[in-house]
Amino acid sequence: MAAARKEPRSNDITIPATAYAVLGLLSFEQELSGYDLKKWADSILRFFYWAPAVSQIYGELKRLDRLGYVTSREVPQDDLRNKRVYRITDSGRAALTEWVEQDDVEPPVLKHSPLLRVWLGHLTTPDHIRELLLSHRANTEQMLEDARKSEAQAHNNPEQWHYPELVARFSMRHFEAELGLVDALLAELD
Amino acid sequence: MAAARKEPRSNDITIPATAYAVLGLLSFEQELSGYDLKKWADSILRFFYWAPAVSQIYGELKRLDRLGYVTSREVPQDDLRNKRVYRITDSGRAALTEWVEQDDVEPPVLKHSPLLRVWLGHLTTPDHIRELLLSHRANTEQMLEDARKSEAQAHNNPEQWHYPELVARFSMRHFEAELGLVDALLAELD
DNA sequence: CGTTGCATGTAAGGTGTTACATGATTAC
DNA sequence: GTAATCATGTAACACCTTACATGCAACG
Q: What is the pTM of this model?
């Protein structure tokens, strides 16, 4: 008998993690526009997941709408402009919860291009590699700083924000750890 | 004046990092088949980058061939079966080196779905979240063990393997750090 | 005798990006 | 007055995966 494959749960249509990420953003706030969602994703999600392109967010919203996971309405903006705000439905919240509780945890995906370059160090000089690592180190420091700000923000917020705060702290430490790893590697380069 | 965008260097056709990863594998060994490359990628690249599907490897090889970055020849296998082995060309080595030395370092991409789920913890119970983290922890421990083996292998090998050894050690520490972060998060869950 | 490894590829489809199009308002 | 922010979307394309097709050899 064919071994249990994907274990499609109940009435689940499988949608990508990105869709759940967008739905997840909507599970915190009342109503958000596609534009709002993009800003949010950029300011929070990018630390531990990643920030989808604007166009993809609009696409995902359309999909979520088709599935009945969100509803939307137009709110008048200025004069002639309208904006469309989205709200998660009960069905959407249920689907999202099911996804969160899903016991089959995919491992994190890491694509560390700086390291990929280091791995190919035999093609260039140690100086180049060192420079590359320092550049990566600077990027990481920037991320760490941003993550710290994000953590501070999450800190003074209602109960619902407990988990985001924990995750923000995790991210902070993650970037701190990365700095340590880079430094150790730099030290070993000699 | 339009700000410098992608800085297309010299005669560079931009090919994805994956293509360089495959080319990189070929920069160590003399000749490898698509099949060999897949095994390699699975056993090494996956720790800090990621392992492309078999079919993609064949696709990338075709592209690299078109670009003149690799050459191939058929070697008779058993009876009727042939296998095609690839070898990096001087032009390929030059292109790869240029890529390694490129000063515009893209940051690592992390898609941490377990954390994404934790972030949405308000939708479920702390027990579920704990379970999820323990599951992720077990996966990480497995990766750590594998990375250790890989590091040990890289250790007793010729000069060229110095950088892979450093990277293997980085990966080891990376997974150790991840375990630490998960444990800290678990502790804070109370 | 069934599974795994060896070995190579095609086809289809989903995921995600960039570029483009449009246009108002606000800030420097 | 030029750029940035707000605001939404389409189209084209690149990337990558799964499923499929094929078939021998070796191991248990």
A: 0.90
